[in-house]
Amino acid sequence: MNPRSVPIKRLSLRQYKSIEHCDFDLGPLTVLVGRNGVGKSNILDALSFVTDALRNTLEYALRSRGGIAQVRRKSASKPTTPGISLEITLPDGSEATYAFGISTVQGATFKVRNEECVVRKAGGSVTHRFTSRDSRLTDWTPTSPAPPTSPDRLFLVAASGLPEFRPVYDVLTRMVFHNLNPESMKAPRRPEPGSLLARDGSNLASVIKQLAATSPDKLDRVLRYIQAIGVPIRKIEHKQAGSLETFQVLQERGENSRDANFEAIALSDGTIRALGILVSLVSVGPEGTAGPSLIGIEEPETALHPAASHALMDALTEGSDSAQIIVTCHSPDLLEHRDLKPDMIRVVILEDGGTRVGVLSGPKKELLQSHLTTPGELLRLDQFEPDPDDLRRQEEAKGTFWESEA
After folding, report:
1. What is the pLDDT confidence band of residue 303, given thresholds at 50, 70 and 90?
2. Closest Cα to residue 98, out of 404, 402, 403, 366?
3. Torsion, Cα of 237, 240, 244, 245 (10° steps)
4. Residue 277 pairs with which residues in a beta bridge?
5. How far is CA 46 from the centre of its chain?
6. CB-CB contact of 43 with 31 (8 Å)
7. What angle do CA 265, 267, 271 make, to 5 degrees?
8. Does the pLDDT of residue 259 top 80, yes or no?
9. Do 312 and 334 form a contact (C-beta atoms < 8 A)?
10. Which end of the chain has fewer CB atoms surrounding its CB within 10 Å, N or C?
11. What is the arithmetic mean of pLDDT over 94-103?
């Protein structure tokens, strides 16, 4: 990915979990702020849903979330049709739009109601396109024959076998999302693929092994950030334990004591979470190929001392040069970073039972730009508010392609 490029330019959601509708742009680093339970995690989960449905199957993506009934927004009237639309920047600078909607069939089963992928020259004309409705292609521009459609699978999976649509598929399947589980990260595990860190971080040892083999400079960068956070670690290395693998660190113990090796299981939750985040930010594909296109992280500040927040935000801002980053945040200390700009903040609220997302309101943005307050102070005082004009624009701009009901 070119520096500061933004793979996912805009995200539009309809009837997904707590979200009735939202439509907002994303930057290299986007911070979602809001109270507990307003739906910040559902925004990240919608993006994760796309990746799960393409990497695995749509059935898997739904089943792992409790089925279609748990994904679609609860409604007092007829069943709703969850829909997701993404505006994408491809590695060669061209642009794409990908959207799909899912409807219920006879209660618990589902079908792809409609799906569309449009690839354009940068800011220009359409080069490739497909559109399907109820498993029937209504538009197909490539000269090669179209692969078969299926009512329970996203057509982009089949279309990704063609060079016209493969770049879209690659961007969307290289998104990763983390809600790190220290216990899973500490335990010895069987070797797993090490190109992208798993959602819970359980393959951390495998990712460390691959970084050491293909990009040792990146692993050194992780080490420097860990030290900046305040953990006196001098070395991080992969360790084989029979058929299992783990990792260990060499930690400084003071002038009068010898440095000592500590296995992963001995590390604190805060240290191992920070290590997982930092490793994900620099992770690369096989043989040093491209790493994540986008990284979503739930509350990266969890279990960290407030004094470490500045170094962590340093890592996030630097990491956004190579991978787009979205984080949810409850930490005033993390928001106090000098490089955090008002335009990076998206405010999430719960209004009339539904999640709304908007850019920061004009008056609050002006307070920040005039240095009359700080983002951390606004968070402590619960004074973040979305721009009402932006919410109004979203209300007026509701789409219809993938919002149709079953």
Report:
1. confident
2. 402
3. 10
4. none
5. 9
6. no
7. 135
8. no
9. yes
10. C
11. 95
d(CA 116, CA 284): 30
User: Whole-number mean pLDDT of the chain?
Assistant: 90
- Other beta carbons less than 10 A from residue 255's beta carbon: 5
Sole residue written with tokens 């994408």: 88
Phi-psi domain of 274 (left: phi exceeds 0; alpha: psi -120 through 50; beta: other): alpha
Residues 365 and 139: their CA atoms lie apart, in Å, by 44
Q: Which residues pair with 189 in a beta bridge?
A: 245
Phi, psi (degrees; rounded to nearest 5) at 391: -65, -40
The dihedral formed by the CA atoms of 9, 13, 19 and 24, expressed in degrees to the nearest 10: 30
Whole-Å CA distances, 393 to 53, 317, 397: 30, 29, 6
| CA 212/CA 218 separation, integer angstroms | 8
3-state secondary structure the chain: CCCCCCCEEEEEEEEECCEEEEEEECCCEEEEECCCCCCHHHHHHHHHHHHHHHHCCHHHHHHCCCCHHHHECCCCCCCCCCEEEEEEECCCCCEEEEEEEEEEECCCEEEEEEEEEEEECCCCCEEEEEEEECCEEEEECCCCCCCCCCCCCCHHHHHCCCCCCHHHHHHHHCEEEECCCHHHHHCCECCCCCCCCCCCCCCHHHHHHHHHHHCHHHHHHHHHHHHHHCCCEEEEEEEEECCEEEEEEEECCCCCCCCEEEEHHHCCHHHHHHHHHHHHHHCCCHHHCCCCCEEEEECCCCCCCHHHHHHHHHHHHHHCCCCEEEEEECCHHHHCCCCCCHHHEEEEEEECCEEEEEEECHHHHHHHHCCCCCHHHHHHCCCCCECHHHHHHHHHCCCCCCCCCC
Q: What tokens does 93 get?
A: 């600078």
Please say if the pLDDT value at position 169 is more than 90.
Answer: yes
d(CA 350, CA 18): 9
- What pLDDT was estimated at residue 107? 63
Identity at 24, one-letter amino acid code = F
* 67 phi/psi in degrees, rounded to 5: 100, 170
